[in-house]
Amino acid sequence: MTQPRDVERAVRASAPHALVDTLREVLAERYGALSVELLLADHGATALTPFGAAGAAAEPVPVVNSAEGRAFGGRQPHQETRHGDLVEHHFPVAVRGERTGILTVWLPAERSVPDTVRDLVHTAGLLGHELLVAERDTDVYRRARRLSRLTLAAEMQWQLLPARSCSAEEYAIGAQLEPAHDTNGDNYDWASDADELTLAVTDGMGTGVNASMLTHLAVSALRNARRAGISVEDQAALADQALYAQYRGAAHVSTLLLRFEFATGRVQAVDAGSPQLWRMRGRVIERIALDPQMPLGMFEETHYKAQEFGVRPGDRLLVVSDGVYAARSPQGEAYAERALARALHAAGLLPAAAVPRAVLRDLADFRAAESADDTLVLCVDWFGKPGHRPPGPAGSGRGAR
Question: In Å, how far are 65, 120, 197, 219, 322 from 240, measured between CA atoms?
Fold first, then answer.
């Protein structure tokens, strides 16, 4: 039986652009694999594009109603039998909760045994890590996952994003920004350490490259302040100063900053603009109404004050941009009035990584028209540390059941 470390050595020694070719050769030799294919998720997570042996992209496979899509969405291996003596396996390729794509391997039926399947699950995880490293040195994987050419503004925005999902013992995050190939300035960011998780959702005013440049400065300033280890209040203040110094109040960035404390479940929040925060606790959904403060960059020395609320294990938080909550149906109803709560209930059994996509699909049906604005949804499932005491009363909000 093949040892996974043999495959690992071969993949780690591969040239960055040749990971799939290397994997194809070693899996054929070690497991008798008749076909090995990598399918990469596009930016909108709606399709999986086969990555060709020479780096060329083939016809994409839809995530909805496909075997590959079931493995991708469920984050579990999926197996199909073909022609009686061949077995097709689909393995999720992921890194710390971030789903990159699917590894499809065809095996002779006699080689499709539990030990081999376990090895290939390990191999798909290894490939996810190696793809992350390889993208520092080659563009072939980024090119393959694009269904159409990105605008320059969208390129700038996507380079800022940390990932589409992330998970740890204390939390799971999923996020989605649309439209994937153009942008009006929405963005999200996160970082965690041993004690806390910090989230930022931003919306730079304007459109196109101007909005992307503004948002790029805001996110970079927030990261610079966060990495200095200072409070969310001071992070907002320093980013505010950086934006004002550049634009002198002519442009601003709406921002929501959240810092989660793992040990207690307490959350510090700075609401400096338009993103809204909603919480699902059990079957109860409510908006967490925070005191609004000035968007970043409007005035020279704005002082920001953090508010506190608490999260409990099992809570689900949703951050949505104005392109989501203010979207209107053909009859004029705002999405946040009733439809957002219905969408959250409908997605109650989905993992955090799949919730943003489900909400945005529901939003598209509700709106029944193309959006003129970016739409951003970020979901946080809170697990907390085992044995931590739940915090006191949480922030108030307008309830929706």
Answer: 46, 48, 21, 11, 21
Return the structure tokens found at 124. Answer: 């798909």
Residue 337's Cα: distance from chain center in Å?
25
User: Within the chain, what is the greatest distance between any pair of CA atoms?
Assistant: 71
pLDDT tens string 277-327? 999 999 999 999 999 999 999 999 899 999 999 999 999 999 999 999 999
Contact in structure between 99 and 75 (CB atoms under 8 Å):
yes
pTM, to two decimals: 0.87
Which of 74-83, 172-181, 193-202 has the lowest average pLDDT? 74-83
**Cross-strand pairs, 107:** 87
Strand order in the sheet with 276-281: 165-167, 171-178, 375-382, 316-320, 276-281, 284-287, 399-400
Detail the DSSP E strand segments found in 52-163. Answer: 61-62, 78-82, 86-95, 98-108
Cα(149)–Cα(29) distance, integer angstroms: 37
CA 165, distance to chain mean position in Å, is 4
